[in-house]
Amino acid sequence: SQTIHQWPATLVQPVGSPLSLECTVEGTSNPNLYWYRQAAGRGLQLLFYSVGIGQISSEVPQNLSASRPQDRQFILSSKKLLLSDSGFYLCAWSPGRDRKNTEAFFGQGTRLTVV
Amino acid sequence: AQSVSQHNHHVILSEAASLELGCNYSYGGTVNLFWYVQYPGQHLQLLLKYFSGDPLVKGIKGFEAEFIKSKFSFNLRKPSVQWSDTAEYFCAVNTGRRALTFGSGTRLQVQP
Questions:
Q1: Do A102 and B103 touch (CB under 8 A)?
Q2: What is the average per-residue pLDDT within A44-65?
Q3: Is CB count within 10 Å lower at the N or C end of chain A?
């Protein structure tokens, strides 16, 4: 069966420090991968999605970037965190080849607090 | 661009009351529709989904949703809620061109 791992679960970082959140998927190949940010009362905002290694689409211009160095690995990064980067970050995957099956599966999330 | 609106931001019900959460989307073509639930302290889980066929779909835990194409709606319903249904509910749409687009969520609080 497929599983998705996201870490760390919680993170407190000072303003101006770098960020690296990692997400890996097991049990599937060529998944579509996503990073969302969840803010209270605003739902889930899509930040990045990837349909393959090295292929990243950015949805919202911001202080963050994403990379996909391996098929089942998706990394969310920042060179210098801002206070406004605080939030709950979710990684998700969906089957890549079958475009009809577009259900997404979510990780446990990372609560990031920038202080 | 696709978008999703959930008009009920916070709903408070007593146990055994009926539930209906509204969801409207904006996209003129074929859509896939979803309801996700996030229980306190847990990750997002799929409640139900609609791809095609019968517009009335049944999900887990007694939930159902009806797709009304003419109204661009996919409302979630449950005849009798339980305290354990306290959670945040998200409607989402996918047109097949990009990732899921989510609504702002509805926080449901069920009082015993």
A1: no
A2: 89
A3: N
Work out the number of other CB atoms within 10 angstroms of the CB of residue A80: 11
Label residue A11 exposed, middle or buried (CB < 10 Å: 0-12, 13-18, 19+). Answer: middle
For B35, nearest residue in chain A (alpha carbons): A103
Tell me the three state secondary structure of residue B10: strand
**A42 Cα to chain B: minimum distance (Å):** 4
Task: Evaluate the CA torsion angle B22, B49, B97, A40 in order and state its sign.
Answer: positive
User: Is residue B105 within 8 Å of residue A43, measured between CB atoms?
Assistant: yes
Which site among A38, A42, A44, A59 would you substitute to test the B interface, given the most B Cβ atoms closer than 10 Å to its Cβ? Answer: A44
Torsion region of B9: left, alpha or beta (phi above 0 gives left; psi -120 to 50 gives alpha): alpha
pLDDT digits (tens, 9 = 90+) for A1-43: 889 999 999 999 999 999 999 999 999 989 999 999 988 777 8
Residue with tokens 């870490």: A7
| Separation CA B63–CA B77 (nearest Å) | 6
Rg for chain A (alpha carbons), in Å?
14
SS (H, E, C) B42-54: CCCEEEEEECCCC
